[in-house]
Amino acid sequence: MKFLSYLYQDKTDYGVMNTDNLLFSMFDVWEILNLNSNTKNDREVPQDLLSFIRKYGNTLNTQIKSALPDLTDKAISPDSVKLLAPIHYPLRNIFSVGKNYKDHALEVTQFTNEASAELPQHPIYFSKATNRLLADQEPIVVRKDLAQKLDYEVELAVIIGKTGCDIEPAQAADYIFGYAIGNDISARDLQNERKQWFRGKSLDNSLPLGPWIVSSDEITFPPHLNISAKINGELRQKSNTKEFIFDIPALLADLSRGLTLFPGDIILTGTPAGVGIAMNPPQFLKSGDLIEFEIEQIGKLTNTIKLID
Questions:
Q1: Are 134 and 140 in contact (CB under 8 A)?
Q2: Cα 58 from Cα 176, distance rounded (Å)
Q3: 14 forms bridges with which residues in the sheet?
Q4: Which residue, 84, 103, 138, sits at the end of a domain?
Q5: Are residues 123 and 52 in the same domain?
Q6: What is the pLDDT of residues 162-207, one digit of tens each?
Q7: What is the pTM for the complete model shown?
Q8: CB–CB of 152/182 below 8 Å?
Q9: What is the pLDDT of residues 236-275, one digit of tens each?
Q10: Where are any strands of DSSP class E within 144-254?
Q11: Which of 84, 107, 135 is the C-terminal boundary of a domain?
């Protein structure tokens, strides 16, 4: 299933999309769940997708799938809605992983002062400040005075579905709600100026996420998915998540060691080679540029750049 947030008939809603690409409001799904429950009407429907994830994680997936055939007459055409970011405002800062593809780790040495091309021995983490996430088709608006060297990074986003600390690699799949596509927009000039990543990664509008969240039970674990990025139709990044230096079980085990993860937390798992700053000469994003990201079994995330004074 795909979990998504959307605007329909001027109202914000969220729901699920089945394999036939029929969309169902969670509020309609909830009526069926309560009718089929032994504790009728005891469960109130969460008001948005993040609230749903925080309260139920993926524990209701089977019941939701079973309810959908009874809702055919209430199905919504995806063409009649405007997609919103599946999670509007994250629970807390985004957990991000740096240099997690071998080819990207090596290309980083080309545009930094690092003398060594050695691969990381441990995962490298940084965070993106908690801002409103952008939806598919939503423009990425950035002030020109803040960033002249704007860059893209296609990443597989992992959405946590269950509270966990000291997670064992073998149990990592149990803690994942689903997957989405993330664009780790990066102001390279701010990164270089400050000699660290947080400031250049945390401007407003710096994380498009979507187009929806695919439930974890739809994708074989650990996911080995083709991942790509195009800028104005030109293929820039192409890889597969099997090329992770640290795979998702290793990341969740390492990150959660003494640090509790909560439902709704978002982890960006790294980007492959092909970012703009590593090109010769560097190719930074300009106003009007079209960014098209695609990850196998998830879909496409498309945004345009809009630089403003």
A1: yes
A2: 8
A3: 5
A4: 84
A5: no
A6: 999 999 999 999 999 999 999 999 999 988 787 788 999 999 999 9
A7: 0.95
A8: no
A9: 999 999 999 999 999 999 999 999 999 999 999 999 999 9
A10: 150-151, 154-160, 176-183, 186-187, 209-215, 226-231, 234-240
A11: 84
